[in-house]
Amino acid sequence: MRLDKFLKVSRIIKKRDAVKNFCKNGFIKLNGSLAKPSKEVKVGDIIEINTPSKFLKIKVLGFPKSKNVRKQDAKKLYEILEERKNQIQDILKVESEDDFFKEF
Length: 104
Hints:
This protein is of the alpha+beta class. The chain has helices at 3-9, 16-24, 71-74, 87-92, and strands at 28-30, 33-34, 46-50, 54-60, 78-85. It has one domain: RNA-binding S4 domain (Structural Genomics Hypothetical 15.5 Kd Protein In mrcA-pckA Intergenic Region, Chain A, Roll). The protein has four helices and five strands. A five-stranded antiparallel beta sheet has the order 2-1-3-4-5. Strand 3 and strand 4 form a beta hairpin.
C-alpha cells in the first residue's frame, strides 16, 4: 500500500495532500530514509513523522481489508513506538499542523 494512502486510512494524517507536503518538506521517513508519498509500505516498516511541533514513530502492523476503515479498526493498523511534542511548539505556539493530525 502507498505511504500516503496508509497514513490516511490509518487516520494518522487526514489528507493525502498533507502527506505529500510533509514528504516534500522532509518531515516523513520510512525505515530511516526520507520518503515519497508513492513509496510502498510493508508490514513491519517503521514510519517517522517529525514536524516542528510533533514527533511520531510507528510500526506498520497490517492493512485494511476494505476501502472504509472505522476509527477503532484504524488504530489496529499500527503500533506507536514513540510520541512526543517538539520544543518548538512551546516556543512558537505552533498549532497549525493539528489540522492534519487526527491521532496524537
